[in-house]
Amino acid sequence: MKSRRASRNRTALNARPPRAAAKPKRKTAVRESAVHRPRPTASRTRPGAFSLQPSAIPKRLLDIYQALRNHFGHRKWWPGETPFEVCVGAILTQNTAWTNVEKAIANIKSAGLLDARKLHAAGVERLGELIRPAGYFNVKARRLQAFLDFLVRGYGGETARVAEAGGPFAREALMGVNGIGKETADSIVLYALNLPAFVVDAYTKRAFSRMGLTHPLAEYDDVQKFFTKNLPEDVPLYNDFHAQIVELGKNFCRKRNPRCADCPAVGMCEYGMEETGR
Ligand code: SF4
Q1: Pocket of ligand 1 contains residue 211 by CB under 6 Å
Q2: Is the pLDDT of residue 40 over 50?
Q3: How confident is the model at residue 52 (pLDDT cuts 50, 70, 90)?
Q4: Which residue of 55, 80, 100, 233 shows the fewest CB atoms closer than 10 Å?
Q5: For ligand 1, is residue 258 a contact (CB within 6 Å)?
Q6: CATH number for the segment(s) 54-75+199-276
Q7: In the chain, % of residues over pLDDT 90
Q8: Does residue 175 carry a pLDDT above 80?
Q9: pLDDT tens-digit profile of 151-160?
Q10: How buried is 16 (Cβ within 10 angstroms: 0-12 exposed, 13-18 middle, 19+ buried)?
Q11: Which atom of ligand 1 is nearest to the CA of 206?
Q12: What are the residue ranges spanned by the domains of the chain?
């Protein structure tokens, strides 16, 4: 295994490409890593720096989950009284804070329309008025209407009937709906249909690449495969693990200035250990 200093130097060099007109280097006793200290951004790359044996990864993931859960407690996701409400929330939460989604859902509820068939019949203009607090309301109204078309025309408005088809089929079918991508489809499969699908988001990519477990440039499917390969296929675990990662990303593993010194996962994080000198 390479020494921590060697690893740090390589990372620093990777982080800063050489300038075209670089001045000749002065001889100096100062370490490269002290001069080019890597900045705490998501773009920091450590290809090949993963130090765990593959056989140790499942336990490491469960240890990380436990450390986060000890800190944050069980997150009891997803907020929503019915699977249909979860679907609506998953579509509206794209590019907006959850508090705005709550306002939009409250509007739908007070109009007595939190039902697939009723909301479908309301039409896209009415939808736009109701979900205005969620932002991008014209786009989101069209997306929601497309989902309602899918649900009502294909499954009689019953999310349970979508679930009957099984997780992989449901995922593919949902991704065929305009405006539903991988993250939203997996959120619906996991949190509304109660079927196994590990949800990956920007928080997941950032935190686990800093931990040295995934590559910073890994695509959604690769990161998802990393988790599903190394975790038991367990809906409650997938449910709360993703919720814990969101808390980690919001409270500690921020894009800029991550709070490594206070992070509950610092003892299992390459980046955090370097930053804090542990
Ligand atoms: S120690 Fe925590 S906050 Fe720091 S990089 Fe690692 S996961 Fe992110």
Answers
A1: yes
A2: no
A3: confident
A4: 55
A5: yes
A6: 1.10.1670.10
A7: 79
A8: yes
A9: 999 999 999 9
A10: exposed
A11: 8
A12: 54-75+199-276, 83-192
